[in-house]
Amino acid sequence: MMPNRVPSWRDNLYHQLLFQHCSLCQLPLTPTERYWCHHCISQFPSPPYCQHCGTTTLIAVSHCGHCLTKPPLWHRLYRLGEFRPPLQQLVHQLKFGGKFWLARPLAQQLAHQITQPAPLLLPVPLHWRRYCWRGFNQSHQLALALGAILNTRVNHHAFQRLRHTPPQQLLTKTQRRNNVRYAFRLRPIALPEHVAIVDDVVTTGATVHQLTQLLTRQGVKQVDIYTLCHTEQSVS
Question: Any signal peptide, and if so, which residues (predicted)?
Answer without folding.
Answer: none
